[in-house]
Amino acid sequence: MSKVLIKNGRIFSAHDDYEADLFVVNGKIMAIGQGLEYSSDETIDAHGCYVLPGGIDAHTHMELPFMGTHSADDFETGTLAGLHGGTTSIIDFAIQTQGNTLQDCLNTWHEKAMKSVGDYAFHCAVTDFNEKTKKEIAGIIEGGITSFKTFMAYKGALMIDDKMMLGLMKEVRKCGGLVTVHAENGDMVDALVDQYKREGTLDPKYHALAHPPIAESEAANRFLDLAHQTDSGVYIVHTSARDTMTEVRKKFLRDQRVFVETCAQYLLLDDSVYDKPNFEGAKYVMSPPIRKKDDQEALWHGLQSGHVHTVATDHCPFNFCGQKDMGKDDFSKIPNGAAGVEHRMELIFSEGVRKGRITMNRFVEVMCTNPANIFGLHSKGSLAIGKDADIVIFDPNQKHTISAKTHHHNVDSSIYEGWEVTGKVRTVLSNGKIVINEGKADQVQKGQGQFVKRKPFNFAL
Ligand code: URP
Ligand code: ZN
Ligand code: ZN
Questions:
Q1: How far is the centre of ligand 3, averaged over its atoms, from the C-alpha of 85 (Å)?
Q2: The domain at 55-374 falls in which architecture?
Q3: 287 within ligand 1 shell (Cβ under 6 A)
Q4: Per-domain residue ranges of the chain
Q5: Burial class of residue 18 in the structure, from the number of CB atoms within 10 Å of its CB (0-12 exposed, 13-18 middle, 19+ buried)
Q6: pLDDT tens across 140-167, in order?
Q7: What pLDDT, on the 0 to 100 scale, is given for residue 203?
Q8: Is 22 in the pocket of ligand 1 (CB under 6 A)?
Q9: pLDDT above 90 covers what percent of the chain?
Q10: pLDDT tens digits for 16-45?
Q11: Within 13 Å, how many C-alpha atoms sit on residue 382's CB side?
């Protein structure tokens, strides 16, 4: 039996804030109370620190085959980077190859994830909805994969049309799952890419111009209408634009169940990054692209008002040398994506909580509790008796600077290079085991991460 006692911390949940001790037995939270006196194998003094639930990043792509290469973090390096930053669970996207079954793709992702050091779950991305795939949905939900990702962009590779979307929504609704979406109008994007290529404007910044906010808001609006028609619970990933938030707000007014995710980079960066010299803008090529400051404001307001429910990262790193430079002469060949899983918690704490944009309770809600509840990770997301002991001991005052020289992402650059952050993860427990202490991961073993079977979507949420 392993026992850990965490003393004198300040415990935060989505609603509460109190000083107490927390006792962990065999990977589960056994007791929370003041002055606990249990004998333990390890006692941690958390005086001066916050005690938080382990973070859940609901949007990552480890070892993703994409645009002629693979994202640079695999499940081992990516989840280890997550643990360093207090993210103890990820939900990665298992992406169907068109023509293959959903089960094929899940088998592939299970295999890749065997070496994971943090806990993981999968969204199943449906890129080819047909009679065969339809029959697989119920079994996949029973197997604990209860959300289905769709792409309205990346035509010819991942995109599905509205007819497939409707068919998928109906089946997923019937079986108790949730449909999620990458909302961008793929045809609009492709037409703009073609236009810029014809005009010979091929720098990274044209990637951003080829993915305008209206491509996102149009797709989100259409997706939400399809969801309304099929009475589906739905979730929009990586929301980046004010225009999209405007569409979403209209749907709340008709009482539609819609969950909205944004990502740290859309809250923190603005499109001036595409003006960097020496092809550096390529580091920020992702879809949707980094938007304007005004869009950032709309997303922060969404977090404040409750219209944005989760903050993820869309962690999908590519090396500047050897991967991003595949698009040196043509922005459309730059692999889309960037790293973020390690710094989500610290960045949003520093920029959100410390700067007074969101409360500490709201921080816990959007980083930990909401992703757990929306996606059916019911043993995670909050500190309560019987829950998994995924716990972060966080020093709210420690300052540090993000750099590719010191990060744990397996990639040669960082979109947050030089960013000064206040607040640092000190100790992390995953299922009751101390996995990170003062930046060291000595106890971590390859493959210790567990697949988390999720519960069906709760339509009462
Ligand atoms: O640019 C991005 N976002 N890359 C990863 C794939 C996706 O669209 O989420
Ligand atoms: Zn996407
Ligand atoms: Zn993504």
A1: 19
A2: Alpha-Beta Barrel (3.20)
A3: yes
A4: 55-374
A5: exposed
A6: 999 999 999 999 999 999 999 999 999 9
A7: 98
A8: no
A9: 99
A10: 999 999 999 999 999 999 999 999 999 999
A11: 18
